[in-house]
Design brief:
By secondary structure, this protein is mostly beta strands. It is 4% helix and 59% strand.
Length: 538
């Protein structure tokens, strides 16, 4: 009679469960195996009492339970056939297929939701990925395991730790939050949120993050890092710190193996040792060779010469590094097309230029102009030498013409084939040396700053010495000199050949270097013809 009641009771429970379970989980979007019941495959010992044990079966000794493609092994368990749940204890191990294993000290499993809650010394292994924690829930419906009290994921050489993390066994993707750290023999990444793909090895970084590799550090607030190829794509608030180098930009691409770093949008590359910065809308830098390039409002700033900064702009700027692995490293900057430069004591315009941080020399090519105070220098090629605080000297090769503005209508002028001008520590001209077809126009000032007469000199070479902005001595081996009362000199002796005052082209500020203004028609310098010696017949 008792046995018959027990059988009847079990049949009633089974019918109720079959009717009720679909309603409990009708919010689940995925297909489930709720019609499958937990099956007891083996236990050395089984105890059951309808009244004493709340209708639960107590199992011990090599317990094996199965449910919907999952097999669980443990030392002991309490199985509630009514609620389709069980609790397992001691050497708990879940095996699902041939790719997933879940181990721990104790487990609570709900067959209706297919949720496995593993606790203490938990290890989840999926293919080659291993997740360790003390508390892990594995949702078999959605194939995702997650921890919430700290844990780690080991994927080959990549070791990820965080306060909260989840791993999807179907996509093999993982997400980590709070105090996230990704370690690899080559680098360390610290962030607040990270999405990681164990197949592609790409890690997406979200939030304030730092990537460390040797002495290098990259800060970003959003980006992607490939742990195998060491390629980086960064999109927000990015700064890359290297030895004596800082690079930043709205978007930065970096390849650790090739050493190439590219930046888009508000890019800057700073050499903190040699004190220069290269900026632009696009920039490219190779940390192995030290070569850099910038375009789209490209600007180079050299602040190595004391308080005054040299600003250089051109359509394209390229910077080359020499002696990179020594203490005597220096940079050479090349500016191509529409080059303009500004420093408080000197301004320059040319088609192209070259600047060396070692010699502190700027070379200007194709129709160059240099201004200093009220002086203007033109020629076919100009070399300007700077010291720490002021302009040191200027050398002009071919068609040299120096013009000094005395007032709105009178200009001191010196023309020659070659010319070198020297400046004192205050930036004033102290000596001017001219060689080859020298012509001089000079307006001496009286004590009351009036002009009464004009000098005109022709000679093969000349040395002119200045004191207090006035010509006080001139030396020439042989010359023809002329003295004219003011206003009576012939026109060709008041303005030398090629005379033009290019004040409208002159850069007025650091920002003005971006505003190209070319020469007016008819004032462009025509390059001289340089003849070569004829070849000898042997």
């Amino acid at each position: 009679m008792i046995v018959r009641k027990i059988l009847l009771y079990i049949l009633v429970l089974a019918g109720c469960a079959a009717y009720a379970l679909p309603n409990v989980n009708q919010h689940r979007k995925k297909h489930t195996h709720n019609n499958e019941r937990i099956v007891l495959r083996h236990a050395d010992n089984l105890r059951f009492s309808e009244y004493e044990m709340n209708k639960a079966q107590r199992l011990s000794g090599n317990v094996i339970l199965a449910h919907a493609g999952m097999v669980m092994h443990c030392d002991s368990a309490v199985l509630n056939d009514d609620s389709q749940t069980f609790d397992a204890f001691g050497r708990v191990r879940i095996v699902q297929g041939d790719t997933l294993t879940l181990k721990g000290d104790k487990l609570h499993y709900d067959g209706s939701t297919q949720m496995a809650e593993m606790r203490k010394n938990v290890v989840m292994t999926h293919r080659k990925q291993i997740m360790r924690t003390d508390s892990l829930n594995y949702d078999r419906m959605y194939n995702v395991g997650y921890y919430f009290e700290g844990g780690e994921l080991i994927d080959g050489n990549n070791h990820l730790t965080s306060d909260w993390g989840e791993y999807h066994t179907d996509t093999r993707k993982a997400t980590f939050n709070y105090n996230v750290e990704l370690k690899n023999p080559k680098f360390k990444l610290i962030t607040d949120t990270l999405h990681y793909n164990t197949i592609t090895k790409w890690a997406e970084i979200v939030g304030k993050s730092n990537i460390y590799s040797g002495q290098d550090r990259i800060y970003t607030e959003h980006g992607f890092y490939n742990t195998v190829s060491e390629k980086v794509r960064l999109y927000k608030g990015t700064k890359a710190f290297g030895k004596d180098r800082i690079m930043q930009g709205d978007t930065v691409y970096y390849d650790k193996k090739t050493g190439v770093m590219e930046g888009l949008g508000n890019v800057s590359c700073e050499d903190t040792k040699n004190k220069n910065i290269l900026t632009g809308g696009y920039a490219r830098y190779n940390e192995l060779t030290g070569e850099a390039m910038a375009t789209k409002r490209a600007l180079a700033r050299d602040y190595s010469q004391g308080k005054d900064t040299l600003y250089v702009h051109a359509d394209t700027l390229r910077m080359f590094s020499y002696n990179l692995k020594t203490d005597s490293v220096y940079r050479v900057l090349h500016g191509y097309f529409h080059a303009r430069a500004f420093r408080t004591d000197m301004q320059m315009v040319a088609d192209s230029l070259v600047f060396s941080s070692r010699t502190k020399k700027v070379t200007l090519y194709r129709d160059p102009i240099v201004w200093s105070d009220n002086k203007q220098i033109v020629g076919e090629e100009i070399n300007a030498y700077m010291n720490d605080s002021t302009l040191d000297s200027i050398y002009v090769d071919r068609q040299a013409l120096t013009i000094e503005r005395v007032d709105s209508t009178h200009f001191n002028q010196v023309a020659s084939q070659q010319m070198r001008t020297y400046f004192d520590t205050q930036g004033e001209v102290k000596e001017n040396r001219a060689i080859g077809n020298v012509m001089v126009v000079n307006y001496p000032l009286e004590k009351d700053s009036t002009i009464l007469y004009q000098n005109y000199v022709e000679t093969a070479q000349a040395r002119m010495f200045m004191r207090n902005r006035k010509l006080y001595k001139i030396w020439a081996p042989a010359s023809h000199g002329y003295f004219y009362p003011i206003g009576l000199a012939p026109a060709d002796r008041t303005k030398l050949p090629g005379f033009a005052w290019f004040d409208y082209i002159r850069p007025l500020s650091p920002d003005d270097v971006f505003n190209w203004r070319g020469k007016k028609e008819g004032t462009t310098l025509k390059p001289s013809i340089r003849r070569e010696a004829p070849l000898q017949k042997l």
